[in-house]
């Protein structure tokens, strides 16, 4: 199941994210920071302008910034979409919610810009009212020069940036969930000797589970089947055009790879891919893949107790009957008889 203590540091590789965050800030002209569900910063501030930097360095004023980040994130969660609002200094901010299994764990906050559309700005919500404290007002007056230097964007530009960051966050969450699921499935499988605890899957989408299943299948197959090095003397010699397809086939043993998909991977047409493949390998694509899978099946029959149906599924055959037919075509016996004889 999705762990209750899954936090932002587990969800995002913060070191890699900060590099991306810096680049996004430069391109979009908005400041970006990741905060937890309480509004506390989790990353550094990328592109933070002088005005906001000075405000956040002021202990009295920084409290308002944290309240804005917290309330903005919660509003984004309620809407389940980017929330564009005015901070306590009438500056545009954007909250992008990060939600896992219905739980709000943080947000990507962006903004620190002024709107060129004054009429639209007037219609946006100011979720935290400005401080009436005299000392705070004096601090703000002293920073007017920096306030005037804030970047100016149109509302349409702000919306486009918000939607882009929202899509990016959803992608990161999806990828992180799949990696987390694969890790949990692997640990559970090893611990329980291939018995997967069904509670591991709770909270994940069908897409998460399907992708994790494919990754686990490949991991299991590669654990039993020695990888053929494409550079050794037994390896098939192909030109650089076909190499991406050959490598993909070896690394994705559990998939039912299609000629059309491999041709796209090699950036050539299916017809040219087919002709080139036959010329380089001496056999057509379908026969080549079938023979490889039968070789891998032989390893599994010799080294594991996997059922014939399981081997068929793991190697991406559409059904066990077809697998048995192809196996007998190349080996002269059924998988059952092959295992019986090789283990005698």
TrEMBL record:
<keyword id="KW-0238">DNA-binding</keyword>
<dbReference type="InterPro" id="IPR018771">
    <property type="entry name" value="PocR_dom"/>
</dbReference>
<dbReference type="InterPro" id="IPR018062">
    <property type="entry name" value="HTH_AraC-typ_CS"/>
</dbReference>
<dbReference type="GO" id="GO:0003700">
    <property type="term" value="F:DNA-binding transcription factor activity"/>
</dbReference>
<feature type="domain" description="HTH araC/xylS-type">
    <location>
        <begin position="243"/>
        <end position="341"/>
    </location>
</feature>
<keyword id="KW-0805">Transcription regulation</keyword>
<dbReference type="GO" id="GO:0043565">
    <property type="term" value="F:sequence-specific DNA binding"/>
</dbReference>
<dbReference type="InterPro" id="IPR009057">
    <property type="entry name" value="Homeodomain-like_sf"/>
</dbReference>
<dbReference type="Pfam" id="PF10114">
    <property type="entry name" value="PocR"/>
</dbReference>
<protein>
    <submittedName>
        <fullName>Transcriptional regulator, AraC family</fullName>
    </submittedName>
</protein>
<dbReference type="InterPro" id="IPR018060">
    <property type="entry name" value="HTH_AraC"/>
</dbReference>
<dbReference type="Pfam" id="PF12833">
    <property type="entry name" value="HTH_18"/>
</dbReference>
<keyword id="KW-0804">Transcription</keyword>
<dbReference type="InterPro" id="IPR020449">
    <property type="entry name" value="Tscrpt_reg_AraC-type_HTH"/>
</dbReference>
């Amino acid at each position: 199941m999705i762990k209750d203590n899954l936090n932002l540091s587990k969800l995002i590789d913060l070191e890699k994210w900060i590099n991306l965050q810096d680049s996004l800030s430069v391109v979009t002209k908005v400041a970006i920071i990741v905060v937890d569900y309480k509004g506390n910063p989790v990353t550094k501030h990328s592109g933070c302008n002088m005005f906001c930097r000075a405000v956040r360095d002021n202990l009295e004023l920084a409290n308002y910034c944290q309240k804005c980040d917290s309330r903005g994130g919660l509003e984004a969660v309620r809407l389940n979409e980017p929330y564009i609002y005015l901070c306590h200094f009438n500056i545009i901010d954007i909250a992008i919610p990060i939600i896992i299994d219905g739980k709000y764990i943080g947000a990507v906050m962006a903004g620190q810009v002024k709107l060129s559309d004054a009429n639209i700005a007037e219609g946006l919500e100011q979720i935290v009212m400005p401080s009436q404290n005299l000392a705070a007002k004096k601090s703000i007056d002293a920073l007017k020069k920096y306030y005037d230097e804030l970047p100016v964007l149109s509302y349409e530009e702000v919306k486009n940036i918000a939607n882009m960051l929202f899509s990016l966050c959803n992608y990161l969450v999806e990828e992180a969930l799949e990696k987390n699921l694969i890790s949990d499935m692997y640990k559970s499988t090893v611990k329980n000797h291939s018995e997967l605890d069904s509670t591991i899957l709770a909270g994940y989408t069908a897409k998460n589970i399907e992708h994790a299943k494919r990754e686990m299948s490949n991991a299991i197959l590669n654990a039993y089947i020695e990888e053929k090095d494409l550079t050794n003397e037994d390896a098939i010699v192909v030109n650089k055009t076909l190499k991406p397809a050959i490598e993909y086939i070896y690394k994705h043993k559990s998939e039912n790879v299609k000629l059309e998909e491999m041709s796209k991977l090699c950036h050539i047409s299916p017809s040219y891919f087919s002709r080139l493949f036959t010329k380089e390998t001496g056999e057509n694509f379908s026969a080549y893949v079938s023979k490889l899978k039968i070789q891998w099946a032989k390893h599994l029959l010799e080294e594991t107790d996997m059922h014939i149906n399981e081997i068929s599924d793991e190697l991406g055959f559409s059904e066990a009957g077809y697998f048995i037919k192809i196996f007998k075509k190349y080996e002269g016996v059924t998988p059952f008889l092959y295992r019986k004889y090789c283990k005698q």
